[in-house]
Amino acid sequence: MKGRYLLRGAGLIVLALLLGACASSASRSLLKEDYVAMTDQELLVYYDQLNEALAKEEGGPSGFGLGLGLGVGSGSFSVGASQGMYVDDPTVELRNRRNQVRLELARRGLQPAGEVP
Q1: Cα torsion angle, 33, 37, 43, 45, sign
Q2: Calpha distance 51→68 (Å, rounded)
Q3: Which of helix, strand or coil describes residue 55?
Q4: Which of 43, 89, 111, 115 would give a disulfide with 38, using CB separation of 3.0 to 4.6 Å?
Q5: Which residues contact 90 (CB under 8 A, 6 or more apart)?
Q6: What is the radius of gyration, based on Cα positions, of the chain?
Q7: Coil/strand/helix, residue 50
Q8: What gap in Å lies between CA 61 and CA 58, rounded to an integer?
Q9: Are the C-beta atoms of 86 and 62 separated by less than 8 Å?
Q10: Is 71 helix (H, G, I), strand (E, B) or coil?
């Protein structure tokens, strides 16, 4: 019985870590793009993609911690997760790139959709 709960808890932990890795790899692939060589339309789309990636990163947990507990006397077992703060904020690079793209848009005389000049 305890082994089944342990296995389920471990499976959930692995799933959470995999989802976090997928989200951060999508952000890294955005940062590899050469925005200066993009056409005006591509640059506008890229700016929107950066905003969406930032929203996903900021909307998710800011850190992840694991806990394991054993109840003495009652024979219970628990697995827990908690949120905390990242030492290295993954959104910093995305914000910096978005600011660079915003400057490039201004240099080209372009205005992103939904932003007032």
Answers
A1: negative
A2: 36
A3: helix
A4: 43
A5: 24, 27, 57
A6: 21
A7: helix
A8: 8
A9: yes
A10: coil
Identity of residue 6: L
* Residue 77 parent element (H or E): strand 77-82
Count of C-beta atoms within a 10 Å radius of residue 11: 10
Count CA atoms closer than 13 A to 78's CA, side-chain side: 8
**Contact (Cβ atoms closer than 8 angstroms) between residue 110 and residue 40:** yes
Separation CA 40–CA 35 (nearest Å): 10
Record the tokens describing residue 65, joined without a space.
């911690």
Give strand pairing partners of 80.
Answer: 67
100's tokens? 């660079």
